[in-house]
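quick q for whoever's on today - can somebody do inverse folding on this one?? i tried earlier but teh output was garbage lol. tokens:
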């Protein structure tokens, strides 16, 4: 991180923060403070452990203290929808708020996660989303956003697989309603796909099973595999995908791009994306 460019903290310092629980491993402070330093901005970014029952008070406190903005992470993204004065189109579309901008005393909620998924898939895997066939594993918060974003990007066909099938069925129904031209089904595809995307949390812990049951679907049937998990850098799924000859990427690009967009919303300046990526990699992998 280019600490040398850090401006001194004084009464004019603008503050941003991420609120979440747990929060101690967040890479966002390293990422944003590196970006502020690179642009010579007198801004700082902090991280706060906030219990959901205190979320409203924390947002109000930040507003009262003239913070520039906030990020929200697990488990606050849905709760925050009802705690802002106004929802930007992105937050309305994706039904979740991960970024708040305070403007003239008003709290405006944004969602920068969905766009970050598409940007990272394009940048890191060179996937052409329009017309692609995609197998998506997971139907939690991240899976839902990914499924809707892929539909909005006009993929040709979407296959949703989740341990709790009813949640995949619900998302499929929502896609049919919002994007009637997209073919969506629940269960493994019968033929090859262009992309397999893991949005489950399986792989975060070393003892986790791989999220794909290769007896039901072979990695040889996909060209590219994206794992939203970025720690460890190579999950069992990504190792197996490389062995099967797939292009692979982990979720670090998503983390960087959701942050870059939030940075632009708060500061009105283009984000130094390469600086942010290096800072995240330093924070997450110690490189
Ligand atoms: P996130 O916000 O990261 O999406 P989440 O909403 O808790 O977190 O979703 C976690 C996802 O990982 C879900 O798809 C979950 O499957 P269920 O909907 O059946 O719970 C999936 N997941 C978590 N642990 C799993 C496990 N042991 N086996 C299979 N899927 C699992």
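ok took a stab at it. sequence:
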């Amino acid at each position: 991180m280019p600490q040398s460019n850090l401006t001194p903290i004084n009464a004019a310092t603008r503050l941003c923060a991420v609120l979440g629980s747990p929060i101690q491993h967040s890479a966002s402070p390293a990422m944003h403070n590196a970006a502020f330093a690179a642009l010579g901005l007198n801004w700082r970014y902090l991280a706060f452990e906030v219990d959901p029952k205190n979320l409203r008070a924390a947002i109000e406190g930040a507003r009262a203290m003239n913070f520039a903005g906030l990020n929200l992470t697990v488990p606050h993204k849905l709760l925050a929808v009802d705690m802002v004065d106004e929802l930007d189109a992105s937050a309305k579309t994706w039904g979740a708020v991960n970024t708040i901008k305070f403007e003239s005393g008003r709290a405006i909620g944004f969602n920068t996660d969905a766009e970050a998924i598409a940007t990272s898939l394009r940048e890191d895997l060179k996937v052409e989303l329009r017309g692609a066939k995609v197998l998506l594993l997971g139907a939690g918060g991240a899976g839902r956003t990914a499924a809707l974003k892929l539909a909005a990007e006009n993929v040709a066909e979407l296959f949703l697989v989740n341990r709790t099938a009813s949640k995949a069925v619900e998302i499929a129904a929502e896609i049919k309603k919002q994007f009637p031209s997209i073919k969506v089904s629940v269960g493994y595809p019968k033929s090859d796909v262009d992309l397999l995307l893991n949005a489950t949390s399986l792989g975060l812990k070393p003892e986790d099973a791989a999220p794909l049951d290769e007896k039901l679907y072979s990695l040889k049937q996909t060209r590219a595999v994206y794992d939203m998990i970025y720690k460890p850098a190579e999950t069992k799924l990504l190792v197996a995908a490389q062995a099967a000859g797939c292009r692979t990427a982990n979720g670090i690009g998503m983390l960087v791009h959701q942050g870059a967009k939030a940075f632009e919303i708060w500061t009105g300046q283009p984000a130094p994306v390469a600086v942010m990526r290096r800072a995240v990699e330093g924070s997450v992998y110690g490189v």
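fwiw The first strand starts at residue 14 and ends at 20. also Residues 252-267 form the longest helix (16 residues). so keep that in mind when u check it
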